[in-house]
Write a structure and sequence with these properties.
The structure is a homodimer of 437-residue chains. In chain A, 44% of the residues lie in helices and 15% in strands. By secondary structure, the first copy, chain A, is α/β, with parallel strands linked by helices. A 7-stranded mixed β-sheet of chain A has the order 3-9-8-7-6-4-5, with helices on both faces. In chain A, strands 12-13-16-15 form a 4-stranded antiparallel β-sheet, with helices on one face. Strand 10 of chain A pairs parallel with strand 1 of chain B.
């Protein structure tokens, strides 16, 4: 029995679905290269023994706080369980403590990472071939990939230096509607976005909510990096914290704040859904129905680890990530300082200056494609991410993404030295070719 | 912002997606009822402290057997990881030890429970509106629900006492093709099926594989209960063990053999897929691409728990489940003996006599719907599952499913007493109504 890729779902032939695989394969192929590519969290603080402690902490919570008997504890941790999860009350407390958000725990679905949350939301919203999703570009490739699997077209919304071009957003909504399409939502990361690093300022957050309400458009707010400001500025409120009209579906991740290996994320979906019989439910309950047929429920063992971390820090991830925040801020500063030294004023190389998060985008005077990444890894020993992976249109992009999350200052120094050589080599090589013709 | 269910994906209005929710809600609504409904594994042997031991065992395996450094151990367990999983080599060893199957570990994708495995396979195979899935009916509702989410029509194949009506299977394939449709695969559980309890005899296994090869049809073999024969008979080989032509996609679950709360399952997909460029890959690699956009990867912490159990039993789940097998066999005997005593020969009540697994189907002289389940719970204090949930056509079914997996012999006695009263009440009530007209 042999299959042909053309007989499988079209997404399997799509670059968006190959993007992560490609980047992982390049990294595996050049294990000695310095990697400024991976958006993984810092791993020096991981402790195996802490796993046991988190599990014990959560078990005590079930007994002492929730009054569960030993049999109930076993059932909670070992059996099939509540589709919407078992740490929803702790997630709600976390959102209250860290974000000042008041969230009904019943409006939360705990998911297998934020990726599943995204997938469930898109599956529920994509009802018809006329449905399209808007997404602020450049866009996290996992969003594009999930949409592809669901035959949901993604239309880009332009980015400005303040995150989202509101006029373009309104224009895209109107354009789609004039074409007979239904824009179901706009996806965006308002804080230290992946990959742009950009954050939306306060005034634009309110304007964005007003626009969404006027246009009757859902916003899908993804917030994996919000706890990592680099300076001492107060963090801005999330869109969901400002949302008075249930306009925002909020996606949360514990991958960057607790650990990726738990694969625990969540979605807050407090929108009311009117049923065929006129009865209303929460969108979260509809997402749970989808989830029951995708993964049944999120591993209670994995949830227990995340729950243990939350319980040990009074449900504050700001408190839980104090050490990591210092590392990320230091690394971000070290990277931008290093860029200044290596590419002085007048250089054709420019870069963004994010106020937090993991990512800096470097613009170079040549298009950056996958072949160049291979050359950079092979000849210069340094890995980064071509920004073209975050656009969906195949147009060449003269930029690359650098990540500071899983490296030391020494890695950054070595990596930037090599990137400087690589850029110089490219510029010289292209100059030589140009003059040879 | 308010949504209407009609604006969401059509599956959300479908009975198949509400089935699990409905059954869970009934169970929660009548907590004091005896439940012969739940297909959960036996929970008396669960031990919280064993979780720590499994994690430690798996950590030692990473260090001692795979030579990982402490940093690599942290990365394996805490970080994002291999999309196809980190216990694939142990799963392959398990299949060799327990099933005599030789499986390339690279052809295995470790998934978030068997449900995700099912979902990934259906997503990959459903490329076109002409695609349909065949499934031996009655069918596990999770299969139907997953297919609904993917707009994949499911066509039933008739069951005989030996599991699958081969003539009907061939007829369904031809009928679909003559309608211009593409039957992509046939889903079935050859061993102690949920819900029918039926197993396919050896001769039919070979005939089924021959038919699949002749018709160029994939078989999706789901095997959650195969390790639980009730007698001393040798277990039959799986279809995949007999498969010489890569005709079978094999779905595995650790929910019934290790613990549901790990949410770890897997798929063996060793089919070759020819790409647009002529290069071949394994179907497992295509499924991994889908998975990367659904859940990224399966929690390595959850995999470590399953890995620890496998390692502690020489990768034999036959060995790991010795105590449970005794319980299930005893309960199944106790249930069928109890049915004999309560419904003597000549009664209009009949039941299946499975040779293993969790389930017995009881046929009664009246249609069994959800309203009757409510009445049984409310008035008689006993829960079971209406067989109508496992058919997709809305036709009334005169049968209910009893499960023996999560109960004691005393529960079975009390449950059967109540079912006998319930059946008597229904028969009398209906007789009264009939004679009143």
């Amino acid at each position: 029995m042999e299959l042909h890729v053309d007989d499988l779902h079209a997404a399997l032939g799509d670059p968006a679905l190959n993007s992560m695989n490609f980047l992982n394969e390049v990294a595996q192929h050049y294990p000695d290269a310095v990697s400024l590519a991976a958006g993984r969290p810092y791993e020096e603080f991981f402790e195996f023994s802490a796993l046991h402690r988190y599990l014990d902490t959560f078990r005590r919570h079930l007994v002492d706080d929730l009054g569960q008997s030993p049999g109930q504890v076993h059932r909670t941790l070992f059996q099939y369980g509540r589709t919407k999860g078992i740490v929803h009350h702790l997630v709600a407390r976390n959102l209250a403590v860290d974000e000042g958000m008041t969230v009904d725990p019943e409006a939360i679905v705990v998911t297998v990472g934020c990726q599943e949350a995204m997938f469930l939301v898109l599956r529920a919203l994509r009802a018809d071939p006329r449905d399209v999703l808007l997404a602020v570009a450049p866009t996290y490739v996992g969003l594009t990939g999930a949409a592809r699997l669901l035959d949901l077209a993604v239309r880009p919304v332009a980015t400005t230096e303040s995150g989202v071009d509101l006029a373009d957003l309104r224009g895209q909504i109107h354009r789609a509607r004039s074409e007979g399409l239904r824009p179901r939502a706009c996806y965006l990361m308002p804080d230290f976005a992946n990959p742009s690093g950009v954050s939306i300022p306060m005034s634009d957050r309110r304007a964005l909510l007003d626009l969404a309400q006027e246009e009757n458009l859902l916003l899908i707010e993804d917030n994996p990096y919000g706890l990592f400001p680099a300076g001492d500025d107060r963090r801005l409120p999330t869109l969901k914290a400002l949302d008075t009209n249930r306009q925002v579906i909020y996606l949360g991740s514990f991958a960057k704040t607790v650990l990726p290996g738990a694969r625990v994320g969540y979605v807050v979906a407090d929108q009311r859904v009117v049923g065929a019989d006129g009865a209303t439910s929460l969108l979260a309950d509809q997402l749970a129905k989808v989830k029951s047929m995708v993964t049944v429920n999120t591993s209670p063992l994995a949830q227990a680890v995340v729950g243990g971390v939350l319980l040990e820090h009074g449900c504050s991830l700001v408190a839980a990530t104090a050490r990591e925040r210092v590392v990320y801020a230091r690394n971000l500063r070290h990277l931008t300082d290093g860029l200044v030294r290596r590419f002085p004023a007048g250089s054709s190389v420019r870069w963004t200056a994010p106020t937090g998060g993991f990512f800096v985008v470097v613009t170079v005077p040549f298009p950056v494609d996958d072949a160049l990444l291979h050359r950079s890894a092979r000849e210069y020993g340094v890995l980064w991410t071509p920004m073209a992976h975050f656009y969906d249109d195949g147009i060449p992009v003269h930029a690359l993404r650098l990540s500071v999350s899983a490296v030391t200052p020494e890695d950054i120094d070595r990596g930037l030295d090599r990137i400087a050589e690589f850029v110089a080599g490219e510029v010289a090589g292209r100059g030589a070719v140009a003059s040879a013709y």
